[in-house]
Write a structure and sequence with these properties.
It contains twelve helices and five strands. The chain is mainly alpha-helical and about 270 residues long. Helix 6 links the parallel strand 1 and strand 2.
Length: about 270
Amino acid sequence: MYDHAACESWRAGTAGGLKSIGSGKLSAKEKSIIDRCTAQVYHEYIRKMYQGKTPTLQDFYAELLRQPESEARDVALAIELFTEGSLNTFAKPTNVDTNSRILCYDIRDLGKQLLPVGMLVVLDSVFNRVIRNRKLGKNTYIYIDEIYLLFQHEYSANFLFTLWKRVRKYGACATGITQNLDDLLQSHTARTMLANSEFLVMLNQAATDRAELARLLNISDTQLSYITNVDFGHGLLKCGSAIVPFSDNFPRDTELYKLMTTKPSETAN
């Protein structure tokens, strides 16, 4: 029995992580070694019907060292910092209950070196959860705050792009949130995702961002006025091919508003 989705996700994450921490591209030999070691690391876990210890990057590292090829040792050396070294945060079993109904991944404190690998690990975990929920007949809702960060690295951007296209078929809905639209629109991958998204909410935008959105989404000058120097709660909705202005004057004297507001002046004790 072979879980193609789980192993394929591991391979993609491992290969992407290696590319992001090394120079150049993986050779054909290195790809073959990664493929072989991935299958071997997962073999016993799958044979036991996913019971027992889940394979980790440290297991993958140990399997690399057991291979006869010199290329395997090169790959092992490339990931040693992230498996046995000071950046081994994602190489060990998690101490978080990943079976919880709601999970929150916080990548804010990841350092510059660990961030590319960390984003791949998080996206891989999200995708595996989507796959598992699909088998259980459950829907999955994914919310990515400050999504522009994931497009600052090629491999996390490509992984997210693939996930964005596939998860709907797996009964999942992905939502990206950002205030840094200018940074987001500099990525061709992000622009493609925006153009192909069925539902968008646009609030007040800077002049440069408005111009880019107008070109990307074919927004008229009249419609742009609804995201130009407007107050909170005003903007445009894009649903399919329709673009509709909205105004949401949510009452501020309610408990629900107090729970939702993100203004520091309104959340201070």
